[in-house]
Amino acid sequence: MQQAFPFVDRVRYEGPATRNPFAFRHYDADAVVAGRPMRDHLRFAACYWHTMRNGLGDPFGMPTAAMPWDDGTDSEGNCLRRVDAFVEFLEKCGIDRFCFHDRDVAPELGTLRESNAMLDRVAAHLKARADAAGKRLLWGTACLFAHPRYMAGAATSPDVRVFAHACAQVKHAMEVTHRLGGEGYVFWGGREGYSSLLNRDMARDLRHLARMLQMAVDWKAELGFKGTLYVEPKPREPSVHQYDFDAATVLGFLREHGLFGKVTLNIETNHATLAAHDMEHELRVAAAAGALGSIDANMGTPNCGWDTDQYPTDYSLATRVMEVVLSTGGFTTGGLNFDAKRRRESWSPEDLFHGHIASMDAFAFGLKAAAALRADGRLADALRRRYAAWDGELGQRIERGEASFAELERLVADERVGSPASGMQERLEDTWNAVVWDARTAR
Ligand code: XUL
Ligand code: CO
């Protein structure tokens, strides 16, 4: 079989001093950090859509990516060759997992029945190749946003036949995910939103969205699918407003419709940015609700306002992400899926490797740095001290719901309550810097 990436054999760990651009400087898959091998903490996944299907076109210009293994057609032979190239990529880059949309793997044909039949054949090949290479499906999903029928949404479309089509497509995508041993299934509502409120009934749209998710929960049980269902929040783009705006919005929606606990969250960095949040904010909102399921790791250019899906190569960002992940006890079914694409100028197949290598190293660094912050303990200590009074008798009675306004008024009416202890933000930032930079050379 002709290789898609003949220029590289296998990316290996060579340590922080290496000058080899096809080597890891921090990601040493089997090295143990905080009690577990790095690969088990990080659970890296590559996505089929950007890695195999993104030609790097933009609204102003044509695709630029060179994909010598791809003849540009929707033929079954081409789909099968893409599978081979993808698995070769995973193997050479040392990435254990992958994610896909149904339509990334096989094209949309005249009817759903025809599309399903071809998807089944290509997915069988993907399963065989992935199994042989020891690669696992982190999650699957259905593309409910590319075809013109979904122009006004899928679950929230004002057209009930479109809703029905979307449900049928999800049903099959869940089946394929299950067949491939998927650990999860994602709902990203590509067009579940609106461009104008003049032509939308918001309350009705939201009820319909909840109906689709409940049917997915029911179908999951019927299938015997043990994976996790995730919703991936995003505030806008392509719609002006998307109903799954951010983590807090989605959690409120799930609670209102009796879906909390049945569906959890997949949080994406650039979507957090578009919602004017830090990624850390979104992760903490999800974690506080016990609903941090999985992560789409990328980053954006905040002053550009687009979902640029850049590779997450920022060490500081990766450290903050891993701090939250470690604080929750780590991923269970989730992982770090690189929902990232090359810049349009980075058109060569080599750049697919550089994007992933740089990101895997950033997260390996972030893992070591986050573990070092936890071992150092000064930040956790400062936090504990700041809240210490809440652990006293009064604080505990308030937290248990045993206090009233009247009682608290009696308590403080004659007191002069002054300033609380200093927040020491700058000192904490300094500690953070000291520990994170020390971790730079540590293993
Ligand atoms: C789009 C996005 C999607 C989902 C999967 O912004 O993030 O690729 O992750 O549908
Ligand atoms: Co995503």
The CATH architecture of the largest domain would be Alpha-Beta Barrel
Helix/strand/pairing class, anyone? alpha/beta
Number of individual domains: 2
Mean of the pLDDT scores? 97
Explained architecture:
The chain is of the alpha/beta class and 443 residues long. It has 2 domains: 34-376, Alpha-Beta Barrel (TIM Barrel); 379-441, no CATH class. Helix content is 46%, strand content 11%. It contains 16 helices and 14 strands. The protein has helices at residues 38-42, 48-53, 76-93, 102-105, 112-133, 160-179, 202-223, 247-256, 269-274, 279-288, 315-327, 349-376, 378-386, 393-399, 405-412, 425-438; strands at 12-13, 23-24, 32-33, 36-37, 44-47, 97-101, 136-141, 184-187, 193-194, 228-231, 241-242, 263-268, 292-296, 336-338. The protein has an 8-stranded parallel sheet with strand order 7-6-5-14-13-12-10-8. Strands 1-2 form a two-stranded parallel sheet. A two-stranded antiparallel sheet has the order 3-4. The two termini are 38 Å apart. The mean pLDDT is 97.
